Amino acid sequence: MRLKVLGAYGASDAEHNLTGYLIDDWFAVDAGTLTSKLSFAQQSRIQAVFITHPHADHIRDLPHLIHNRFAQSTGPLTIFAAREVMELLARDVFNGCVWPDFSDIIAPATGKPAVQYRSLTPGKRIVYNDIGITAVGVDHQIPAAGVLLEINGQSIVFTGDTGPTHEIWKRTNKMQNVVAVVTEASFPNDQQPLADETAHLTPHTFGEELKKITVDAPVYASHRKIPYERDIESQIRNLRDRRARVLLEKNYTL
Ligand SMILES: [Zn+2]
Ligand SMILES: [Zn+2]
Question: pLDDT tens-digit profile of 177-197?
Answer without folding.
Answer: 999 999 999 999 999 999 999
